[in-house]
Amino acid sequence: MGGIDVANGIVGAVLGIVFATLFQQPLQDGWYRIRRRYSSAVRSLRTRGEEPAPASWTTFSLGPLHTSALIVEGDGESAIAAEAVHIQVLDEEVVLPEDMAGWRAEIEGESARREAENGAPVWNGPRYAVESLDVSRTALEEHPLVHLRLRPTDYYTFLAAQQLDRRLADGTTPRTRYLDPDDPLAAPAFLQCSFAANVAVVTADDMLVVSRRSDRVRMAPGVWNSSVNEGLSRHIDSSGRNAPDLFAVARRGMREELALEPHEYTLVLLAFVLDADRRHWSAHFSARLTTLTRDDLRARMSRGVADRWEHQSFDHVPFRPADVARYLLRPDRVHRWAPLAPALFHLALVHEHGRTSVERAEAQVVRRL
Prior knowledge:
With about 375 residues, the protein is an alpha+beta fold. The protein is built from ten helices and 13 strands. The strands form four sheets. Strands 3-11-12-7-10 form a five-stranded mixed beta sheet. A three-stranded mixed beta sheet has the order 4-6-5. It has a three-stranded antiparallel beta sheet with strand order 9-8-13, covered by helices on one side. The longest helix is centred in the N-terminal third of the chain and has 46 residues, at about 1-45. About 35% of the residues are buried.
């Protein structure tokens, strides 16, 4: 009997692997198609003969500045404690659908050609994809609890999945096939291969640091962005099988992009934000330098910064609500922002000055445009 049980177990395991290999992705694709059709049918029934209902999720905007940043958790006034963030790393890597796998192969081939021609390939770094982000509250104080589930992936898969509007064989696109505009938090992990820490840095003399991305970076070249933007790396940010620490990721970005050490600033987690258009997730932080002024920071950076090549310039803006709002809406800035940066600066202002005074100042600036 023991031999029969072992044989049955082996056969069952083999059949399970075969089933997963042959049918998992088709079943997943079919599930997403059914869900999209169901959602469309429900919307049609709800709106037939009625005025369209306002969207339950709206992205961040300020006057003429409209972004795709969806603030999922956090209002700026209350910080999110480090112990309130629970991260689980799942074992199975992200797998692209069969009709998108060729796009990744194209990127891999392009990288090989570039390496052969000039020795500069597209580095295929290990990274994480977001399986889900769920928010709950503690029983008594109703403090936030954030549960983030990640899957292993790599940079080539991320680049392939960024082609959200590229046509598939059946004429659909990844955006129309897999994403529901009425449920922006529902998306397969293979379309969410980006998670970063974005930090709004304020100097000791109350100057907000604003960066402009280099024209040499592959993603979003030349746009104005957060003080620090550091992507979550599977190779760097996970020790062994341990889950990454988002505060450690932010501190790594502070060190690599601004040459700042942890004892030189205070760091606060403000929010979790999704770029609903490109499916990029972010943990939004604010950091206040304890003694270094704008001039001190400039002098520090003049002596060398590890990732200096990622930025072409930095601006410094008085960290007052009206000044920051005017800067965000400057004619030469308003359409040149990375999607997640304006919401970050707004939340950092709210944390420092309070929601009422910030929104009053922003409204006055918008009225005077």
